Amino acid sequence: MTNIAFIGLGNMGGPMAANLVKAGLQVKGFDLVPALQEEAAKNGITIASSAVEAVKDADVVITMLPAGKHVLSVWESIIEATRPSVLLIDCSTIDITSARQAHALAQKLGRLSLDAPVSGGTVGAQAATLTFMVGGNKEAFATGEPVLQKMGKRIVHCGDAGAGQAAKICNNMILGISMIGVAEAFVLAEKLGLSHQALFDVASTSSGSCWALNVNCPVEGPVPTSPANRAFAPGFMTDLMLKDMRLSQEAAAASGSTTPLGAEATQLYSLHSTSGHGSADFSSIINMLRGK
Ligand code: NAD
């Protein structure tokens, strides 16, 4: 049987670890928050007294933590306690530099490692339908794929160390920009006396079609399941989108890329967040464009 250590049992990590238990794996978990430890224990996860304790007998170690600094500090603290044959997988969304540093830590001791950020949100984490974007060598991917399959439905090997984070950041930059584009079009339509439904019917079947319009439509009505129909309860929070947009801008600066729309969109989400909408769905940015 594969022994898993799972560090970070929050909104995403909690249900992901629970799905590994459901799939018949032995999971030892750790989180700093006692209430999350209790919740995880109810789902069949054995709670360890520390991250180091959790990883001792593990074949695979998974981390699902807020940001790069948390991942590096946990990996630094546990790496020497892991078995030589272990595979370390970080599923958090973090900056590419930290992701590569984490791979280097593992490599120094001869451990296999993957960066494997996800898309699909908490709904995908619960339903085990996440998409994993994976960076790392072929041996690490071949070892990790069967484990990731128990938490997701699509596992894409994007390339070497850091390639998973690169794919995640580029995808979310497209999403952040396209959401604002769709919202601007609806605001313009309102001023021109064009109904929301008419714009939706045309654009969703024309060249304006995209996920931000077809699934996360920022106005009430055309897509009944979109956050606009429930006062912008998320969904995907503005603050998480802002985090990913900032990661895209860090990566752009570090690689010398020009991303003017990415930069502008980052500023707009930042403004939206500081004006009190950080925990609303990011499509609520339409209200800022309306001047509300
Ligand atoms: P979260 O804050 O709910 O969970 C993170 C957990 O890490 C917390 O429970 C925290 O206590 C724990 N933690 C922090 N430092 C720790 C340490 N040293 N040892 C043990 N536990 C520690 O966040 P989340 O929503 O689960 O997101 C996790 C990651 O997944 C983030 O990088 C996020 O950007 C990414 N992500 C989130 C979503 C989403 O919809 N929530 C979607 C895709 C990707």
UniProtKB/TrEMBL annotation:
The metabolic or biological pathway listed in the UniProt record of this protein is: Amino-acid degradation; L-valine degradation
Q: EC number(s) for this protein?
A: 1.1.1.31
**What is catalyzed by this enzyme?**
3-hydroxy-2-methylpropanoate + NAD(+) = 2-methyl-3-oxopropanoate + NADH + H(+)
Highest taxon of the lineage: Bacteria
Which regions span the lipid bilayer?
A: none
- Enumerate the spans annotated as 3-hydroxyisobutyrate dehydrogenase-like NAD-binding domain: 162-289
Report the Pfam families cross-referenced here. NAD_binding_11 (PF14833), NAD_binding_2 (PF03446)
Q: What class of enzyme is it?
A: oxidoreductase
Q: Which UniProt keywords apply?
A: Branched-chain amino acid catabolism, NAD, Oxidoreductase
Q: Which residues form the 6-phosphogluconate dehydrogenase NADP-binding domain?
A: 3-159
Q: Annotated Gene Ontology MF terms?
A: 3-hydroxyisobutyrate dehydrogenase activity
Q: Which PROSITE patterns match?
A: 3_HYDROXYISOBUT_DH
Q: Which family does it belong to?
A: Belongs to the HIBADH-related family.
For this entry, the protein name equals: 3-hydroxyisobutyrate dehydrogenase
* Native source species: Hohaiivirga grylli
